[in-house]
Prior knowledge:
The complex is a heterodimer. Helices cover 30% and strands 19% of the residues of chain A. Chain A is built from five helices and eight strands, in the order βαββββαβαβαβα. The radius of gyration of chain A is 14 Å and the shape is globular. In chain B, 44% of the residues are buried. A seven-stranded mixed β-sheet of chain B has the order 6-2-1-7-8-10-9. In chain B, strands 3-5-4 form a three-stranded antiparallel β-sheet. The termini of chain B are far apart. Classes of the chains: A alpha/beta, B alpha/beta.
Amino acid sequence: MIVVQHLHPSTNVTPSLIYRSRARLSFVEAEDKAPIEEGHVYFAPADYHLLVEKTFRFGLSSDRHVQHARPSIDVLFESAAIAYGADACGVVLTGANQDGAAGLRAIADEGGFAMVQDAADAEFPLMPSSALKAVPSARTGTIAEIAKELSRISRS
Amino acid sequence: MTKIDEVERHLFFEGIYLKYGYDFRQYAEASLDRRLAGLLGDYQASSLLDLLKRALREPEEFRKILGSLTINTSEFFRDPTFFKVLRESVFPVLKTYSKVTIWSAGCSTGEEVLSLAIALKEEGLDRRATIHATDINPFVLKSAKTGIFEASCIPTFNKNYAAAGGTGTPSQYYGAEYGLVRFNPDLLENVVFSEHNLATDAAFLEAHLILCRNVFIYFSRELQERALELFARSLVHKGFLALGSKETLRFSSLAPNFQAVSPGENVFSLLSRSEPKP
């Protein structure tokens, strides 16, 4: 699982300190060129775009901001759509801009699975509602429902 | 984002390489494809072959395309703690040499070179140090040589200067006029700017310190390996190599040749060369 969060550029992400999980997953910052492995939840480092290479390794970049964001969800999703094709699953959660909408569209266009948080369930509804507008066929749900769906998909 | 066809990408970069000598053939693909997709949009080109045709026929257009293919994100004292490590762990060793050679590989528009020159000056190393600043792109070198920047860079400069361990006042290093700032020309006195392509060119100096920050993230693993070999051949024994804060040697076969100098910052010292110097 790969996560992009909009953070202040100087934030030092130490995911293992922020997130605790009852699942047997390790929470780590994604490293440039590292192979993407199961059992890990990878986080984009602050101030870098995170991309998936076709070799299923990570790439980082300091290219210009996309949707005012770096890391940008669109950048991650669009590269994941190309690398994973129909095996990709994109989820857009709460957020205050339109980042993620174009990326989710790219995942859906490749036959991947698209999910969006219910706008009513989101602290900032703009991001999920923009994503739903871009991909009207996306599955919607509360955080709890999305979590259930993700664990179902990961087992199948 | 427009999807990039692999065969077309291959032909595009072969064509650029044959015509102009710039070698993007082993760059990391995912971010490069985003830039290519952006170019296709900017030029309203129907395909990379279409864009290649223009690039081959019109050198002026190629110059703009080159600017979009290379990343020139740079700021003064980028990652200020890195400059602190330089001052605390690297400069004391450099002071033991009577002449110091530093290579800034991928110097872009010159922010890092000036930051480095200021730190060297404050540590009393400026007279004995020569900085070789290289980049693949001659147009950014031209701009770096002027020492002139948009005044909008100054807030970052001031903030980072202090965080990087600067001992003076930031404003002593520049003068502002008409929305621009010019850095004191003496800072660039011992800087030699030249074109160098890490993908194709050979070793050309023997350095005590090499800075190559936020360049490796744009390279494939193969190209990283080539550049690392080049650095190992270009460093004196126990010479220093500085990479970007999110770049790692972990996935390289040359990792055992380097030792981390400061945990957390990507500064390494060369233990042994990969092969004897010819």
